[in-house]
Amino acid sequence: MIVFEINTPVREVMVDITDMVMQEIRKSGIVDGACVIFVPHTTAGVTINENADPTVREDIMAALERVIPNMRFKHMEGNSDAHIKASLMGSSVTLIIENGKPLLGTWQGIYFCEFDGPRRRKVYIKFLK
């Protein structure tokens, strides 16, 4: 298993981790298999989405903020919105690896989604043969 550490600079941000994952796939030597990318945090997630236009990330974050604003919730830490957003994004994605490359669409990238930063976070990658 591979562990990445990510330092997020602000409360909410989508960090492009595509190149880090691609590098680990190349290093693994796996030709055909899969890889699971898992985020072990309750206020962060991971997703695959558009990687050509950075305004898509901005739109995703703005839409999540409109749908789930940081309002008064019962949870006393003041970050319930982050828990809800992380649940919507999900804690893992699975990539199929074929011919040594992930089967990502032309415009797709992999994003670590921070909703309660700034923090030091972990991302786990596990290869399945």
From TrEMBL:
Listed NCBIfam families: TIGR00149_YjbQ
Family of this protein: Belongs to the UPF0047 family.
The protein's name: Secondary thiamine-phosphate synthase enzyme
Annotated source species: Thermoanaerobacter mathranii subsp. mathranii (strain DSM 11426 / CCUG 53645 / CIP 108742 / A3)
